[in-house]
Amino acid sequence: MDYKKRNGGPFMGGASQAKRGKTGGEWEDSPSQFEEELSMFDEAEMEAEEMEGQAGHDVIPVGDLFSADLNPRWRRPNAPTLDPSSDKLVFQQIDLDYYLGSAVAGMPGQLQGKVPIIRMFGVTDSGNSVCCHVHGFAPYFFVPAPSGFKADYLSEFQKELNSAVLKDMRSNKDNISITVLAVDITRKESMYGYHGKRILDFLRITMAMPRLIAPAKRLLEQGLKFGPFPLQSYPSYEANIDFEIRFMVDSDVVGCCWIELPKGKYRVSLCQYEVDVGWTDLISHPAEGDWQRIAPLRVLSFDIECAGRKGIFPEPDKDPVIQIASMVQRQGETEPFIRTVFTLQSCASIVGSQILCFTQERQLLQSWAEFLRTVDPDIITGYNIQNFDFPYLLNRAAALKVNLFPYLGRVRGIKSVLKDLNFQSKQMGRRENKTINMEGRVQFDLLQVLLRDYKLRSYTLNAVSFHFLQEQKEDVQHSIITDLQNGNEQTRRRLAVYCLKDAYLPLRLLQKLMCVINYMEMARVTGVPLTYLLSRGQQIKVVSQLLRQAMKQDLVMPVVKTEGGEDYTGATVIEPEKGYYSVPIATLDFSSLYPSIMMAHNLCYTTLLQKGSVEKLGWTPTGDLFVKSTVRKGLLPEILENLLSARKRAKTELKKETDPFKKQVLDGRQLALKISANSVYGFTGAQVGKLPCLEISQSVTGFGRQMIEQTKQLVESRYTISGGYQADAKVIYGDTDSVMVKLGVATVSEAMEIGKEAAEWVSSHFTPPIKLEFEKVYYPYLLINKKRYAGLYFSSSADTHDKMDCKGIETVRRDNCPLVANLINTCLQRILIDRDPKGAVNHAKEVISDLLCNRIDISQLVITKELTRTAQEYAGKQAHVELAERTRSMCWRTTFPLTHNTTWNSSCPNPLRLEATSNNSL
DNA sequence: CAGAGCACCTAA
DNA sequence: TGAGTTAGGTGCTCTG
């Protein structure tokens, strides 16, 4: 009856949901906090600068919108004239692609037909945009030369392959006459397997354009006959490398690095630095020292509103776009310098932002596109722009035949087209995405970033803003948007404030989470373009590093056909001694376990001895053989050493650095380095991947299993009563790279002391850089099961705990309703902090009785898919009963160990569970 | 009603 | 045509 009582709020958020009044959908209009914030921008700017002729908060009649006088901030700063014969051009490259074009006279490379041209987009220190066309770089791959091959046969080979490729083409739209540009002999060695540094002759086959690589590779695999050689199949090497990556690796360019074009080596062709350069002339600066800086990139965030029909999700062929809000900020600054709303119909002014009103939707769309091209952002952000705003705008513009709309990139004449893309991985499952090409601009959809990098309970902009910024959206229900639009200029103003905030929040989040900095650092560390980090998986990052390392030793990467096979054995989880521990439990961890194993044992493609090899130079637990680093040091260990030592450097620099901005960059870097090191192992084990090598991955886990076992033995053998210690140490649990040890001491500080000593002593039994570290003490500690435990975490001080640490329990899982998570969290606090298990039980009983007596709002229960589905199947009261029952059983189950915490073990039956599940009469 | 199989999510 | 790994707890459904 009275279950409407709302005693909740957002999970973990407590009652602070609606601090800002404005609860209902009332239309009363006191200025919101956000409006005050907006007006502050205005005041600050009025003080800082003369009125530039921009009427900050006026409603501007559409007319001379794009004149420099009216909107001086929209355009980029004027670009100083450049004299290629005496000036160099330096810019930070932020995006990179290629296109097929005609050769430019004076530039290296093929002269006739279409040639591939790399295009780098970037920004100079003074904020001028650069489009740099790099000429003369052609795609290539390798095949081993057949035995007895001599230079005399090169032209014969080239001719045969060329005609085979031509014959293979179904149509020849581009009228290609030469497909194979060149064939050369080079001395190379396959990186797969150690074969006594057997450097062989390889044919380096250069093709006219990237898309000819795949057919050439296929034809060579199928078999080619040339000269005196019999028909035979040629395995290919590096024929599956993206052209952009190929270029970057070969010219030592990494994502987001600074590029210098020396004087006399480039030519200017168009406005704001559109230049041509030969590929060997550009200088790429490693991201060190001064070259770590970031150019003043323009970041545009936007949001659109549509007038949908009642209860129907807006459809672009029917429902109009009524508002578009945009905010533009320079990377590194704290406030947006452009704040604009384009509205359909009139709209009352908003202090601190510019309102542009249109009577025709077509004109609104057209003008916004023009606005975007004028502002010329390097990065475009927003919330779900990739799958909603951009597709909607493009489809709407198509429906209204606004033909000049879909040109949103930085290259004149290239139409932005919507495409469906299916992205699938074990990690993320199947994900349907849309893509829009926008040459030279990086689309940084904040929703996509959050889905990739953060595990959250809810990904709505409101929930995310609350979680990270303790701030929320302006309060406007979706259902009233159309009514607001059909009202008057005041109601449309309210909508505009809402829309502006939705454009502003992504910008704030981007800043708070340091997305741009962190992603740039990742691009620099791994060497891939920024856009790859959002559109591609983990593998390409390792490939990029592997190729760079391999090139130094003339090693080439084979193309392997990918087929899934048997899984291999992973890590050991030590059988837990379940229970409640009211004594300190020391935790020892191997730091970077898998990377350090690969380094210590020189595990790599290049050091693997193929089965049947006679030499036995060092065994792995799985019976695979790898040569010692004294024979040949592996590429993967080299990559890992570079990553981890760079991380150490970044961390020491971080400690010294005082400038907060540089600190952020360094922190982003050390994080990127850590993640990169950890993904190398996964790459070798990815059976459907670019270069899987299960010998490496299973040896890594094999060593890991041996090590955790040995660690347990060592600790338990040394810390004994007979060895002079207070008690016999016991490893009560361990997972993959850690052991939890009950040392039998009474205080945290004793546990810390012995823990540190034990870690050091155990480390001495392993090959460097393998290292066991003392990490923390849990006191008290509740061990529920494998991968499920909780405890008070001591590491910085022996007197006070840093936090309550929960692993695998309902409190950290997203497939439980908040009620359960909150309940368990409170119970754990009672047990661990108050040391009052009875209090925990009482609390649980209270909550459950509230639940059974319908005293709890049903909406709190509906969170998991299963529960949602059930709620849909049952109606009204019945749904409540069903949900209550399910939640109740979860509560009983998870609270049970808490009630019997000191004596309970897994062999005991669970009387409460029996009671809970058998008692179905509510 | 046990248990296999599956979905989901987490630990490392 | 692109996708990091295995171990493992828990709840639900289906089946003999």
Automatic annotation (TrEMBL):
Region listing for Disordered, in residue ranges: 1-32
Record domain DNA polymerase zeta catalytic subunit N-terminal: where: 96-135
A Gene Ontology cellular-component term: delta DNA polymerase complex
Protein name (database record): DNA polymerase
Alphabetized UniProt keyword annotations: DNA excision, DNA replication, DNA-binding, DNA-directed DNA polymerase, Exonuclease, Hydrolase, Metal-binding, Nuclease, Nucleotidyltransferase, Nucleus, Transferase
Location (main, coarse): nucleus
InterPro entries: DNA-dir_DNA_pol_B, DNA-dir_DNA_pol_B_CS, DNA-dir_DNA_pol_B_exonuc, DNA-dir_DNA_pol_B_multi_dom, DNA/RNA_pol_sf, DNA_pol_B_thumb, DNA_pol_palm_dom_sf, DNA_pol_type-B
Domain of life: Eukaryota
EC number annotated for this UniProt entry: 2.7.7.7
Residue span(s) of domain DNA-directed DNA polymerase family B multifunctional: 528-888
Residue ranges of domain DNA-directed DNA polymerase family B exonuclease in the record: 236-464
Family assignment from sequence similarity: Belongs to the DNA polymerase type-B family.
DNA polymerase delta/zeta catalytic subunit N-terminal domain: residues covered: 136-213
Location(s) in or outside the cell: Nucleus
Enzymatic reactions: DNA(n) + a 2'-deoxyribonucleoside 5'-triphosphate = DNA(n+1) + diphosphate
Root EC class: transferase
Pfam families: DNA_pol_B (PF00136), DNA_pol_B_exo1 (PF03104), POL3_N (PF24055), REV3_N (PF24065)
Any single biological process term in GO: DNA replication proofreading
GO molecular function annotations of the record: 3'-5'-DNA exonuclease activity; DNA binding; DNA-directed DNA polymerase activity; metal ion binding; nucleotide binding
Organism from which the protein derives: Anabas testudineus
